[in-house]
Design the sequence.
């Protein structure tokens, strides 16, 4: 008789993790570690869970944060919460201790090498995004690349290790020519097309890193202006992880890059519909931000009434978010364009009075100076 494959002991944790339900994922992982304290995969997933929860809190999960001059690369003070940092480093320390012990017993333990390399990836992302320590992050990334290179030397069919190697190849292969020369002197080589192919292989044949590889490959396709392929990967992931609201956000971003503003607006609206309907996973979205993004997409598509409706919903939220005031500014602009000066003035005054020291407040004050007097018989509906 044919036997069914054993259930993945981390299946529930992974489902929660990729649906951004980090607290639920942590409970499942800790249950696994209680009975299997040396499970390197579980330890790495726990570290990633702690890291991504903190990144989510700091709004560093969107792909645009990692574009040129994105938020992830800005200089400044460290952002990490000290307690989260301690939790993360404790788990990474446990991971590295278990992996090192296994490698002392068997230097060719490919699983131990792989998960040790993965722990360096997690530390590199933390150092880059939350500690603002770029050189330290680079050192961790190089160590991860070295370890995963060793995995592939020992087992060329260990496809998951191609993700770090492929990302490394792509990034180094995408550097300007003069930077490539410096990298070559230092012993680093890369190839952009090879890197893309290596990451693509993980999306199809990887055992542990398929979902991560799809996320990274979608980012690389976006960078390469292969927007349709990026959308295809993200749509595939959205089917698998329907409670992850970041996926339709990234789909909308790719549609915007294609100037398909109506499709982008519909992607944003799908998030808002889930939020308004109370769908699980959509309760804690940054609602004001997404209403503004939807409003901007509708405005670009030429649907000003729909844009104004989204801006008004954002402006009416009880959120401590600059997007509440950006929405009010955008709504005021549409009112002004439609010759509804009194309504525009009311909106500008709210922003100027409530947040006078912000960019939004200063912009509103400037617009108030430019508004004409209120004409008689002003219209109150968008054309």
Sequence:
């Amino acid at each position: 008789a044919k036997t069914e494959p054993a259930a993945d002991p981390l299946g529930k944790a992974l489902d929660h993790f990729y649906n951004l339900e980090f607290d639920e994922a942590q409970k499942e992982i800790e249950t696994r570690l209680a009975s299997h304290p040396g499970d390197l995969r579980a330890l790495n997933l726990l570290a990633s869970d702690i890291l991504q929860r903190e990144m989510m809190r700091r709004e560093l999960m969107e792909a645009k944060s990692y574009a040129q001059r994105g938020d992830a690369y800005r200089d400044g003070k460290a952002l990490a919460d000290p307690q989260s940092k301690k939790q993360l480093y404790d788990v990474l320390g446990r991971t590295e201790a278990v992996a090192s012990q296994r490698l002392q017993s068997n230097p060719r333990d490919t699983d131990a090498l792989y998960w040790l390399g993965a722990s360096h990836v997690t530390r590199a992302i933390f150092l880059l995004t939350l500690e603002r320590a770029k050189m330290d992050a680079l050192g961790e990334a190089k160590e991860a690349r070295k370890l995963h290179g060793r995995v592939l030397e020992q087992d060329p069919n260990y496809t998951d290790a191609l993700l770090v190697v492929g990302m490394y190849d792509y990034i180094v292969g995408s550097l300007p020519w003069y930077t490539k020369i410096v990298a070559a002197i230092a012993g680093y080589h890369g190839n952009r097309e090879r890197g893309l192919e290596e990451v693509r292989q993980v999306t199809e044949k990887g055992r542990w890193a398929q979902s991560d590889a799809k996320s990274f490959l979608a980012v690389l396709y976006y960078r390469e202006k292969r927007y349709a392929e990026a959308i295809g990967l993200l749509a595939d992931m959205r089917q698998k992880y329907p409670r992850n609201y970041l996926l339709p956000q990234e789909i909308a971003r790719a549609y915007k890059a294609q100037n398909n503003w109506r499709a982008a607006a519909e992607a944003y609206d799908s998030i808002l519909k889930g939020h308004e309907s109370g769908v699980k996973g959509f309760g804690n979205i940054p609602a004001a931000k997404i209403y503004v993004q939807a409003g901007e997409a509708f405005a670009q598509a030429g649907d000003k009434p729909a844009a104004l409706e989204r801006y008004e919903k954002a402006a009416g939220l009880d959120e401590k978010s600059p997007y509440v005031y950006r929405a009010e500014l955008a709504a005021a602009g549409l009112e002004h364009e439609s010759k509804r000066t009194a309504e525009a003035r009311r909106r500008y005054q709210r922003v100027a009075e409530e947040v006078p020291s912000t960019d939004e407040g200063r912009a509103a004050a400037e617009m108030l100076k430019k508004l004409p007097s209120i004409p008689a018989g002003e219209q109150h509906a968008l054309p």
Observations:
- Confidence is low (pLDDT under 50) at residues 177-186, 379-383.
